[in-house]
Design a protein that fits this description.
Blueprint: E1 3-9, E2 14-20, E3 25-31, H1 41-59, E4 66-67, E5 69-74, H2 80-93, E6 95-96, E7 99-103, H3 104-113, E8 118-123, E9 127-132, E10 138-142, H4 154-170, H5 176-185, H6 190-198, H7 203-207, H8 210-218, H9 222-245, E11 253-257, H10 265-272, E12 295-296, H11 303-318
Parallel strand pairs: 1-5, 4-6, 5-7, 8-11, 11-12
Antiparallel strand pairs: 1-2, 2-3, 8-9, 9-10
Helix pairs in contact: 3-11, 4-5, 4-9, 8-9, 9-10
Length: about 325
Amino acid sequence: MEYYLGIDSGGSKTAALITNSDGQELGIGLGGPGSLAIQDEAELRHSLLQSIRGALKLAGIPLDMRYKSVCVGIAGYSAEQKRASYFQMLQETLLSECYRIEPDYLTAYWGASGGSPGIVVIAGTGAVSFGRNSKGETLREDGLGYLLGDRGSGFNLGLRVISGVLEEMKECRISPLSKKILEETETHSQNEIMQWLYGNFSTAKVAAIAPIVGEFADAGDQIARAHISEMARRLRHAVRQIRHRLWMPRDIPVYTLGGLWNIGSFFQEEFQDPQWRPELEYAFVTQQIPGGRFNITDAKCDALQGAALLAREECICLK
């Protein structure tokens, strides 16, 4: 029996999945954070081993198993030096005929599409879009981090809303949305907002504002809808860029992944087929977006299963 190991190594957890050559799932295990943004290599190794041992236990397979192929989809993939160290750690930790490390958005794509042509739009705290056409050509849009990109992300939305609150306070007016943001952040002045933002700064803290904005948008709040509409426009632009550059058909499947898609129906609707038109006061915020309705498709599997699928694909490619 040949065994394959897929690993989804992210900012909050590491998950491992063991399958056989038929794709049958034999065991899944979970470990701690596994992003390459983590400085402590010992912590990365512990998370990796914890997840693998859990999967081996469920599968009833010994710890010294030799795999046919291993594929890791990892967050923070762009850190080349850390990635090289992680690859060496994999080789020292696991016995396998071949090893593969890929960015987490690629394993998410393979999980969602099964390798068929399509585009994934991953929007959470950050944002990245990735597509692959029928020729196997690929393209990534964004995924550049909160300083250089992540347009349309939860952080991008939260920061935009905070800026709006500051502008309203400067003009001595507070909208219902701004009032709610001030309550949630427990702030009362511009200085306090700045202290909240910069003190113990984290992108997740800013992104946590997104569900509030989504709730207000679904209730019809014009300011919230203007913010949400702009996020949808930015993500639509990424999809259209990929579709155009890869010569994809207009009805190419688009898979929406990540927590931001759970903030409300208005966001999802504006991304799929923009229809909302702002009142005159907010007309400057967004523009009519050409491109037509997207073919939003449910993901077949998750990123962990995508990593396991790529482990088998790697072995097939090497034959």
